[in-house]
Amino acid sequence: MTAVVYQNFIHGAFVANQSKETFPVVNPATDEVMYHVEVADEYIQKQAIGSAQQGFSKWSAMTPVERSRILNKAVYLLRERNDELAKVEVLDTGKPIQEADCVDIQTGADVIEYFAGLAPTQMGAQQPVGEDFFYTRQEPLGICAGIGAWNYPLQIACWKSGPALAAGNSLIFKPSEETPLGAIKLAEIFIEAGMPAGVFNVVQGAAKVGEWLSTHPDIEKVSFTGEVGTGKKVMQSAASNLKDVTMELGGKSPLIVFDDADISEAVSAAMLGNFYTQGEICTNCTRVYVHKNIYQEFLTELKTRTEQNIVAGDPLDPNVNLGALISKKHQQLVLDYIEQGKQEGATLLTGGHALKPESAPNGYFVAPTVFIDCSDEMTIVKEEIFGPVMSVLVFEDEDEVIARANDTELGLGAGVFSLNIQRAHRVIHQLKAGICWINSYGNSPAEMPVGGYQQSGIGRENGVETLNNYTQTKSVYVGMSKIDSPF
Ligand code: NDP
């Protein structure tokens, strides 16, 4: 059987590289190579920039309404192909089809639709200054770059292309080397929807290709999703020509459950915020602070539901709700964290080991894991694990829990469960986090801006403000009176 090899997607077509260098892509649920992908070598990189320049000229000259129509056609195609695309994401990421089927493509399409709707509403301002006046124009930046993580590959490509393209920019997108196919599918859909060639190019490869994008002098902005450490490197590279940056980075988010909370609801949130997408979600509430009065009751329900309701196995089986981790290396990393948790004195309430489900015995599974007897200094409580590992901590007092929740350099998400509305708002307003939930966890509609405080990021995705982050303001001063000159 000949192996399938995907090429880079440049100027509306697949283009062969010259180096012949490729990398394999493995199905995390089977440990088998599914296909290979060509690396974007120097030849491809040059083509990508030339094409993006041409794409930008055409696309930025179109009216926002014209751009909007094309983006909406792409939204239609994304939704029409939901099942096929969801399967692509399952095979690349190892996540359950029951998630991909209703979340990944839909929430990606929602964001493109949202920005397609907003594009024609962008307006400048006008103000008189004496007899003269000035006006402003919101102009696109030019060529932008998107660099994505592997946990929501197609959704991330949509979340970056939606605002970038709606504002009239072209985008060169690099998906993670582990999940390269979703972005290619999106590129094909954009072309089918009538987008000019070069507006959305996909380049493939690992860090080297990401570095090239972040340093290239013709790229005006880089929007990055990934780890904090990589984000810092990307920012350093972007400083070479003072690129604008958006950074969507990691987190170690707290969930605070007060003793007046609906306990079952809080357990649902804690499970969603730790085990959905097998724990590979940036906003996960991996530090769960539970008030001492309800601690035992919370643990009993959490243990029962974790042990009875989670089904690991072949992610293509619609009954499976816990998939495989992205790679063998990542599985080992998560297991190492679990080992460290035990060594530092935390107790396993449940889980704490790899899994070999009958339907996917070679997959990189880790059992949903809950640690108790945790303290704030433990490594598992401090560092992002990015797997299904929850740490439960006890608290007694509101001020104490706020201080502990804020004792981190990160600041992506935070949640509060309480039926006392004043307390819920009071506490959430004091938490250092950009994405907060009260009596809920994880929902992220297109209309809501998302992004991190502190080292969890810079800038926002989604929401109205993001469209402005893909434009620059041009001020035009118009003289109506005679120039007042001493010369
Ligand atoms: P990484 O930081 O390892 O990689 C992210 C992307 O950057 C990948 O495409 C990667 O390529 C690329 N890359 C790696 N090195 C460089 C470099 N020096 N310059 C430019 N690009 C580079 O993150 P992961 O893919 O491991 O994703 C998991 C992380 O992403 C977690 O920390 C998670 O919290 C965060 N994340 C944040 C989100 C948010 O919205 N805040 C959402 C989703 C995830 P390659 O993978 O091919 O090596």
From TrEMBL:
Coiled coil segments of this chain: none
Gene3D superfamilies per record: Aldehyde Dehydrogenase, Chain A, domain 1, Aldehyde Dehydrogenase, Chain A, domain 2
Domain (Aldehyde dehydrogenase): residue spans on this chain: 14-476
EC category name: oxidoreductase
Keyword Ion transport: no
Keywords: Metal-binding, NAD, Oxidation, Oxidoreductase, Potassium
Top-level taxon of the source organism: Bacteria
Pfam families documented for this protein: Aldedh
UniProt keyword annotation of Oxidoreductase present: yes
Annotated GO MF terms: betaine-aldehyde dehydrogenase (NAD+) activity
Positions of the catalytic residues: E248
SUPFAM superfamilies: ALDH-like
PANTHER family, sorted: ALDEHYDE DEHYDROGENASE-RELATED
Protein family per UniProt: Belongs to the aldehyde dehydrogenase family.
Name used for this protein in its record: Betaine-aldehyde dehydrogenase
